[in-house]
Design goal:
The complex is a heterodimer of chains A (245) and B (481). By secondary structure, chain A is an alpha/beta fold. Chain A has two domains: 3-118, Rossmann fold (3-Layer(aba) Sandwich), CATH 3.40.50; 123-238, Rossmann fold (3-Layer(aba) Sandwich). Helices cover 52% and strands 14% of the residues of chain A. Chain A is built from 13 helices and eight strands. In chain A, strands 2-1-3-4 form a four-stranded parallel beta sheet, sandwiched between helices. A four-stranded parallel beta sheet of chain A has the order 6-5-7-8, sandwiched between helices. In chain A, helix 12 (211-223) links the parallel strand 7 (205-208) and strand 8. The longest helix of chain A has 18 residues, at 184-201. Chain A is globular and about 50 Å long. Among the domains of chain B are: 45-296, Rossmann fold; 404-477, no CATH class. In chain B, 49% of the residues lie in helices and 11% in strands. In chain B, strands 1-10-7-4-2-3 form a six-stranded parallel beta sheet, sandwiched between helices. A four-stranded mixed beta sheet of chain B has the order 8-5-6-9. In chain B, a hairpin with a 2-residue loop joins strand 11 (439-440) and strand 12. Classes of the chains: A alpha/beta (245), B alpha/beta (481).
């Protein structure tokens, strides 16, 4: 039986706990047992992306200490996993001991859909959703982890669902972390285009794997009163027939 | 760079560009059309898109041995009868070109499109000496007539519509208004034909210089470079010192990738291989050929192992076409010669990180540029590296710490990240404190201070009252549905 140690990144923990809950329900249905280390905090990505590597390294050390005794670690975010797997080793260029520990824990940290499809071999999760769905490729998941087919495999097998590709699904939504508040005009211009592509697809819901991007898309949809639902893939896959849509 | 640097106006210039509907239309076409076509053209390579990785290795090797390769190039060019000048600065490159012009009593210059000549501010320097300069690339010609600067590395007038060009030509060239592109091209061609025949000097850039043979390769899609470099008596080619390949095998690979990255072409429309001046036994070519090899800050980049990779660039401009930020703000917003992702890395290294900080901070790190790059340069890595130098300051680059306050905030966050109990308490306090903000359909409508920009045209999700960490225990004890 599969066992996963959950890393629930700050934005889901603090702002979208229902995404974490959905992931737990999904894993329970799939027979995956879980544990959740209480000491977990932030992976350090916000600091790293802004250039504050010493501060990011502190967060990274905390993550490594918290998770290095875990088996398989699963996180519902491609950008956090990319931070851990791709950038942690860079942070410890001058600390070979830490670098090695970072590489070890990085190899065992997986994004949700790559865990389900690549590690466990699931494609049909037995989920149900009545509606038309489109998928937004988050940049770090798609380009830095190479995960783009896995979420589509999972989505397309959801019963009752019609999948439709939007135009330029792999174009950045304009989130970019601190970029979104430092350069709001550029960021907003980008999310405006993303939302237009979502609307043009005719989908009832847009699904993604990273709450950063989805928060950005949802923020724009909400402000402009567009009736498109925003769902993390964990929420989509947690749904079963009989749920209130 | 001798031209005015406006990198510190990035934010306001971006906003102006976003509000310019004509520009938005033009940029949208480049991004949806050319960017996709370039990816398809990489896939159609006999070697497949992995050729980009091979090209990266080739560039790495060449740049790591740049002194040797450039010495060989210079020797070969001289052997072929050309003159070579190593210019340490933009000023030296300009002064040398002016000297040659004086020597040949040059009154008129025709120019092939060259970003490096923009970099050194050559046109105004020539004009200040009373020399008439005519750009001969159609796009460059348009913006020269308009008195503007290029907004794209290979499509300099992408920000102009045919209607605007029609009005411009009618106003400046004394022709009746038309917005028919073939007719506009004919008008430009007619105006330029006389210039080609009258010019004493041709100036070009250099797409690739080959050390093994000592020849320059220059590409155009209009044949204008061929005319600029063969009709006048003297030809001056200017190259950034990194634009060299060691041998013809490397040249073949890089040249094929350059054409695909630039215009999704298998090969540029008109390719000139320039081997030096003509002579008694070899009537083709100008009386004299001069090659200016420009440093202008490149040695300093070469000396920093974290930034050396930016010198692998062959200026195909594929990164511009794929970059979502360039696709919204256009080239002028970057405020310096090189725009788009390549400019976002190169410009701070050339004009100063503090002065051009917005270029490297004002990018989303989406990685589309690396995927588009014909030689697979890791541009996002260098954007992050620039941010790192800005975060703490860097004496080697005379870079000052960008924001002590921001650093303090990250220090505080890092402290919390290392202390789970305090981290939890902080989030709790945030969930309480946010109640003061106005909400709409469950989301916050207006935020203050540094995050006010977010809520200008977007709402934001509030912090949950009960975070996931407090919910997990009850969840995990529930039965499976």
């Amino acid at each position: 039986m599969a066992h996963a140690t959950l890393f629930i990144q700050c934005i889901v923990d603090g702002m979208y706990p229902e995404v974490g809950e959905a992931m737990v329900r999904l894993f329970q249905r799939l027979g995956i047992t879980m544990d959740y280390p209480e000491n977990q905090t932030c992976c350090g990505q916000p600091s790293f992306n802004s250039g504050y590597r010493k501060e990011a390294a502190k967060a990274a050390k905390h993550y490594i200490e918290t998770f290095e005794n875990a088996g398989t670690i699963v996180c519902p975010s491609g950008s956090c996993v990319s931070m851990i797997r791709n950038h942690y080793p860079e942070l410890f260029e001058d600390e070979p001991g830490w670098r090695e520990r970072a590489e070890r824990v990085g190899k065992r940290t997986f994004e949700l859909t790559e865990y389900l499809v690549d590690v466990l071999g699931f494609k049909n999760t037995g989920a149900y959703f009545n509606g038309k769905v489109t998928y937004h490729d988050s940049c770090h998941l798609n380009r830095y982890l190479g995960v783009s087919s896995q979420p589509r495999e999972l989505i397309c097998r959801v019963a009752g669902l019609t999948f439709v590709e939007m135009e330029a699904s792999d174009k950045c939504c304009g989130f970019g972390g601190a970029f979104s508040t430092k350069y709001p005009d550029i960021s907003t211009a980008l999310v405006k285009e993303k939302v237009q592509n979502i609307l043009d697809s005719g989908a009832d819901a847009v699904v993604g794997c990273d709450m950063g991007c989805l928060m950005n898309i949802q923020g724009y949809l909400n402000r402009h009163n567009y009736p498109v639902r925003v769902m993390h893939i964990a929420q989509l896959l947690a749904g079963v027939k009989g749920d209130a849509a | 760079m001798s031209d005015e640097i406006l990198t510190d106006k990035y934010v306001e210039n971006s906003t102006r560009a976003i509000e310019d509907d004509i520009l938005q239309g033009a940029l949208g076409k480049i991004q949806s059309g050319l960017a996709k076509a370039t990816q398809a053209s990489y896939r159609q390579l006999d070697e497949g898109p992995e050729l980009r990785m091979t090209a990266h290795d080739i560039r790495e090797k060449t740049i790591n041995n740049l002194d040797v390769v450039l010495t060989q190039l210079a020797a070969k060019v001289r052997e072929n009868g050309g003159k070579v000048y190593f210019a340490k600065t933009a000023e030296q490159a300009v002064a040398y070109t002016l000297d040659v012009a004086r020597q040949f009593k040059v009154k008129q210059v025709v120019k092939g499109k060259s970003m490096v000549s923009e970099e050194i501010g050559l046109n105004p320097a020539l004009e200040a000496q009373g020399i008439e300069v005519n750009e001969t690339d159609l796009g460059e010609y348009i913006i020269q007539v308009a008195g503007e600067k290029p907004s794209h590395i290979i499509a300099p007038a992408i920000h102009k519509t045919r209607e605007q060009v029609g009005r411009l030509f009618a106003e400046h060239l004394g022709v009746p208004y038309t917005d028919d592109p073939p007719e506009l091209t004919r008008i430009a061609r007619k105006a330029l034909r006389d210039k080609f025949l009258q010019a004493d000097m041709g100036i070009s850039g250099c797409n690739l210089a080959c050390a093994e043979t000592g020849h320059m390769t220059v590409v155009s899609n209009e044949g204008n470079i061929r005319m600029s470099t063969t009709l006048p008596r003297v030809h001056v080619a200017i190259m950034g010192m990194e634009r060299v390949v060691a041998n013809l095998e490397d040249h073949d690979i890089l040249f094929r990738l350059l054409s695909r990255g630039a215009a999704a072409q298998k090969l540029g429309g008109c390719v000139s291989y320039i081997g030096g001046p003509g002579g008694p036994d070899f009537p083709d070519g100008p009386e004299a050929f001069h090659l200016v090899i420009l440093d202008n800050g490149r040695s300093r980049i070469l000396a920093d192992p974290k930034f050396r990779e930016i010198l692998y660039c062959i200026r195909c401009s594929a990164c511009l076409n794929a970059c979502p930020v360039y696709g919204k703000i256009g080239g002028h917003a970057y405020g310096a010669t090189y725009c788009g992702p390549i400019g976002a890395v190169l410009t701070p290294l050339m004009v100063g990180m503090n002065k051009a900080k917005d270029l490297c901070l004002g990018e989303t790190l989406c990685g589309a540029c690396r995927q588009a790059c014909s030689v697979n340069i890791d541009l996002p890595r260098m954007l992050l590296e620039l941010r790192y130098r800005l975060a703490y300051g860097d004496d080697d680059w005379q870079t000052k710490q960008v924001s002590p306050l921001e650093k303090t905030i990250h220090q505080a966050w890092a402290f919390l990240a290392g202390h789970p109990a305090l981290y939890r308490a902080f989030l709790k306090a945030g969930a309480m404190g946010q109640k003061v903000f106005p909400k709409y359909r469950g989301m916050i409508r207006k935020m203050p201070g540094p995050v006010a920009g977010w809520t200008r045209d977007r709402d934001i999700q509030p912090l949950a009252h009960t975070p996931f960490r407090e919910r997990f225990k009850t969840l995990s004890s529930k039965k499976v549905r």
